Amino acid sequence: MAIKATIYKAQLQLADMDRHVYADPQTTIARHPSETDERMMIRVLALAMGWPADTSEGTLELAKDMWDTDEPALWHKNFTGDIRHWVDVGQPDDKRLMKACGRSDKVSVWAFQSSTNVWWNNIAGKLVRADKLTVWQVPTEQSQELAKLAQRSMVLQVTVQDGTVWVGDGDRSVEITPVKLVGAD
Length: 185
Hints:
Elements: E1 6-16, E2 21-23, E3 26-31, H1 37-50, E4 60-62, E5 74-77, E6 83-89, H2 94-103, E7 104-111, H3 116-123, E8 133-137, H4 140-147, E9 153-161, E10 164-168, E11 173-176, E12 179-182
Helix pairs in contact: 1-4
């Protein structure tokens, strides 16, 4: 019998002063049995950082990348089904990223492993035509601290100012300074 997903709930209180986005998104996370707390929390961070200022064409949602290889970790589909924003977490290969750039208006990657620099150096040259792509690196120590905030039911305050992100749960706070490896936004 297969192990089932573990359900987590996250309520975010987002104050992104850099983009002037203020929202209270809530999400239910079906955590795949092989997914770590660290990866799950990077998905939550990516949700907050990619939350659209204008939600009239839908919002960013968690997808089923761990179950379906044709889906990203998160995506923003408008009401006609067009993919506005494709978000991957980890270290996807160049073919996947080029395909995503062809399918969506915007593609973001949130990498967090200590091997991110090696991965990026190996594929960066293959992505010169990917003008829709933005790649962020979360320093490993910071992503590991973020993982410690994981709980089955979470209320997280996410504040963004001058490129720095603070994520707190009322008792603890983690400072995250994502590094942009490539991209315009």
